[in-house]
Design goal:
Length: 402
């Protein structure tokens, strides 16, 4: 049954009525046409520019697929159906029952499925099986080529003056839906808002001392106390110095938010980034912030974020220093917000202090911090006031504060 005609006992598989992102696409069917499924078992993944959502089977039965992979899935769209009293037809060659994603990979790379060992149920090939095979084949060919070239270099390699320089075409890697949506979002932000960046330097001595003193106490309660938790808390305190940083521009008015909902830009390996949101930070203690950060970061990297965990942000932190970056500008504003904080790597730097009237050189853990603003909303003086308060909070962190 590949059309939209339902059996009398079939239940539709429906795309969520509320979605986070501009458009959802069918990313991957986790089962194939005619598979047996159970109620609340994930059967298909939908992908927007912000989140991947699993949609579950509404009942026990046999799966019918209506929307194929890469098709657009509007809210409420019928993705497929489950026939409740149908019987799945046994396949005498289960290893050849391939998902659309696996079939596409095999076709793209002209691979024979019989040459790849399947690790899925009943020996079925999974997408990861094919990717592992490709990685291993690539490593083997590179290794063999290197051995051959080095052995024959003196004989076959032409003299430099005789070499011909030909253009070898590069590899074409199709953009993922997530990558395309990130590109669209970034380009739209730059086109919409005039970006201006202010740069300050923050001393993390007090924060690091507090972290060392209290890290084990947090760990005993199952929570990792990271420097990012202090950044979030300091952002909350800074909003009082410049409330318009926590706002949204409209053509006829400025919307000031009471809730401080801070997003944390999180890298997803080389596939892109996502921004999980800590909601109502104004009501959270340092422990509450650290606990929420831990849950959200793990969910982001495991691909299990719920739609509500990536919506409603009013301000964003880009902690780019975790990958070694000292400075980045402009960090693109996460529209429709009005500003974004950038924090570089914390490193020991020599500073000059005066003790008893004498200049002394000290090593202190410091980092560059930036606030990139939408100049329609904020002026430089407001951005600087916000950053000054942000640094005051970090550098004055009480050792015994909880």
């Amino acid at each position: 049954m590949n059309d939209m005609t339902l059996a009398p006992d079939a239940l539709n598989i429906i795309a969520p009525l509320e979605q986070e992102g501009t458009k959802a696409l069918v990313r991957t069917w986790l089962k194939v046409q005619g598979d047996k499924v159970t109620r609340q078992e994930p059967v298909v993944e939908l992908e927007t520019d912000k989140v991947v959502v699993e949609v579950c089977a509404p009942a026990d039965g046999v799966l019918d697929i209506f929307l194929q992979e890469s098709a657009e899935a509007i809210p409420g769209a019928v993705l497929g159906a489950v026939r409740q009293h149908a019987t799945a037809v046994p396949d005498p060659h289960p290893e050849h029952r391939l998902s659309p994603a696996v079939r596409r990979l095999l076709a793209e790379h002209q691979l024979d499925p019989d040459a790849i060992e399947g690790t899925g149920k009943g020996g079925r090939l999974t997408r990861e099986d094919v990717m592992t095979h490709l990685r291993q084949a690539g490593s083997a060919s590179v290794g063999a080529g290197a051995t051959c070239n080095s052995a024959q270099a003196d004989v076959t390699e032409p003299a430099p003056s005789l070499r011909t320089h030909t253009h070898r075409p590069g590899k074409h890697i199709p953009h993922s839906t997530l990558r395309r949506k990130i590109a669209e979002h970034m380009q739209a932000s730059v086109a919409t808002a005039p970006h201006v960046t202010s740069v300050f330097e923050a001393d993390f001595t007090a924060v690091i001392a507090h972290q060392k003193l209290h890290k084990q106490r947090f760990a005993d309660r199952g929570v990792n106390l990271t420097l990012t938790a202090y950044l979030v808390s300091a952002c909350r305190e800074s909003m009082a110095a410049a409330p318009s940083v926590n706002s949204r521009w409209h053509d006829d008015f400025l919307e000031l938010f009471d809730d401080i909902n801070i997003g944390i830009a999180t890298a997803l390996d080389d596939t892109g980034l996502i921004v999980p949101v800590l909601h109502q930070v104004q009501d959270l203690s340092l422990f509450g912030i650290a606990a929420q950060l831990q849950r959200l970061t793990m969910a982001a990297r495991n691909g299990t974020l719920a739609p509500e965990q990536v919506r409603g942000g009013t301000f964003t932190i880009s902690n780019h220093g975790t990958s070694g970056s000292l400075f980045a500008t402009p960090i693109i504003i996460n529209q429709p917000q009005s500003a974004i904080l950038g924090v570089g790597a914390v490193e020991r730097r020599v500073v000059v202090k005066q003790l008893d009237g004498v200049d002394v050189f000290l090593a202190r853990p410091k980092a560059y911090v930036t606030l990139t603003i939408d100049h329609r909303v904020l002026d430089g003086s407001v951005a600087n006031a916000w950053l000054r308060r942000f640094i005051e909070v970090l550098e004055g962190w009480p050792l015994q504060a909880h």
